[in-house]
Amino acid sequence: xxxxxxxxxxxxxxxxxxxxxxxxxxxxxxxxxxxxxxxxxxxxxxxxxxxxxxxxxxxxxxxxxxxxxxxxxxxxxxxxxxxxxxxxxxxxxxxxxxxxxxxxxxxxxxxxxxxxxxxxxxxxxxxxxxxxxxxxxxxxxxxxxxxxxxxxxxxxxxxxxxxxxxxxxxxxxxxxxxxxxxxxxxxxxxxxxxxxxxxxxxxxxxxxxxxxxxxxxxx
Length: 219
Hints:
Structural class: mainly alpha
Keywords: Membrane, Transmembrane, Transmembrane helix
Helix content: over 70%
Radius of gyration: 25 Å
Distance between the termini: 40 Å
Shape: elongated
Number of helices: 10
């Protein structure tokens, strides 16, 4: 906390700017998009966690004699199932943190502008908001753009961790269901056909995701 004498010598235009400044449209557009996407993914992952619990109860209720026939596969099934549940419970928390960080950015800008009243401040943000337009360097990377307006550099880590949790949930859930289908099949032929079918679905989804990632330029 600065002394009253120090405050009285600081420019008052930053106080006025902090009260009236509105984030550029491109920044608000990304924040709205990030909040919407994070909210949707958090809801889906939470619902998926609820759907995995009954499946877990079914697996736990299998007769031990059946498990003893394929102990390795049943053990792998439990590992993937536990991992899927953990990922689906962790993911929503991570995405809620990302939502919190995006929602707080307008207030962060206001606070940083007030902090730049003091002589020892570099005034990087106040110089930025006074410019008539943003540079291409900032617009090329949305993380860089948000960080220039006060977003913590850790936001990209939070976002990446959320993606890892989502990917881990999908992979572990798919593997668990694939093993369950194999173990539940009445004959090796049926099991083989089902595994081929599930493998084709996995490959198609992986190709579609890779194409979308490349085409949209996802980071």
